Structure prediction request, 132 residues.
Amino acid sequence: MSVNVLLVTNNARIVGHVSSSRFVEGTAQDVFVAARDLVHQGWRLLTHPLYGNFRPLQQPFRSVLLQKPSLFPAPVDMDSLKLLEEALAFHALPKETSVADAGFASNTLEDLAFLDMELMKESLLRDRLWIP
Prediction:
């Protein structure tokens, strides 16, 4: 069976609830790069990469939902590419400290992972990817 919709995420908590996902070991920027690589292959964004209005220091977890083109080779979706490039640029802006330096407590990280999952849940339910 071919995957038509894929969640790219660095949030291990959400992976077990999704029927089609790619886990990215790393930062939100790493998620954006992995999603951008798929866009270059013809995939397109189904969710905005900067959902939730969080600054990079506030949310270390990111999840991006993409749709596979029906025909290959597919042209690059320039809107998707632009959104991902803007997200990468936003995360590259100089800031006081990085997420890695923030030193979140483990219970705070659990809360942030839960928040990322809840923000993505409606989109995952819409595309029938959510597994309770």
Notes: The first helix runs from residue 12 to 15. The two ends are 21 Å apart (CA to CA). The beta strands are 5-9, 21-23, 44-45, 63-67.
